[in-house]
Amino acid sequence: MFYCGLLLLKMEKILVFVSTLDGKTTKWDSPLVRSWSSPEDQAYFSRLWKESELAVIGRSTFEADPIKPAKGQHIVVMTRNAHKYAGKEAGGQIEFTDESPKQLVKRFEQLNKPRMLIAGGAHLATSFLQGGLIDELWLTIEPKIFGSGNGLVARDKLDIQLKLISCEKLNDAGTILAKYAVVK
């Protein structure tokens, strides 16, 4: 007997952030990362963003800096109030959802998407990390110290083990791009 079934590929779920040396992802209370991140990080993120077929961001990230989707890109904005954004979907490329991270990942895994790029704030990162849904964390570390601002994760108890995959110096100032695998 010959059986031909649907082969589901494992989707990579990659969390992307830029942070200061003291772990801040915002400068004080300003959500605009581009106001303080290096040109090298901005070029890296822009290239990564354009290459990503599927990207997930949070509502706060979307409202702080509305993102236009690249050609063929699908952006999912996670919000508790998806109904408030009815009519703001851009040509089917921007979607607003109140699904849980687990539901969202399951839906896109069934569509055989190869990679999900997650680029949002602390609450979005924490919700995906708590669910054990992140495969890799790609972190740009800028040689700056802000003292106050948002962190990489919300103030929840986490115990996430990481293993360094690669590390690259992006500029003479010492901006570092570190890629980590989540140890499961």
Structural description of this entry:
- The chain is of the alpha/beta class and 184 residues long.
- The chain has a single domain, classed as 3-Layer(aba) Sandwich (Dihydrofolate Reductase, subunit A), CATH 3.40.430.
- The protein has helices at residues 39-51, 59-64, 101-110, 122-130, and strands at 12-20, 54-58, 74-78, 94-97, 115-118, 136-142, 162-169, 176-182.
- The chain has an eight-stranded mixed sheet with strand order 4-3-2-5-1-6-8-7.
- The model has no long low-confidence stretch (mean pLDDT 91).
List keywords for this structure.
single chain, 184 residues, alpha/beta, Dihydrofolate Reductase, subunit A, eight-stranded mixed sheet, 4 helices, 8 strands
Provide a concise account of the structure shown.
By secondary structure, this protein is of the alpha/beta class.
Low-confidence residue ranges: none
Shape: globular
Which CATH class is shown? Alpha Beta
Reported by name, the CATH topology is Dihydrofolate Reductase, subunit A
The overall pLDDT average reads 91
Structural class: alpha/beta
User: Helicity range of the residues?
Assistant: 10-25%
Instruction: Using the CA coordinates, give the radius of gyration.
Output: 17 Å
CATH architecture: 3-Layer(aba) Sandwich
Please indicate the percent range of residues in DSSP E strands (runs of 2 or more): 25-35%
Number of extended strands:
8
Distance between the termini: 37 Å
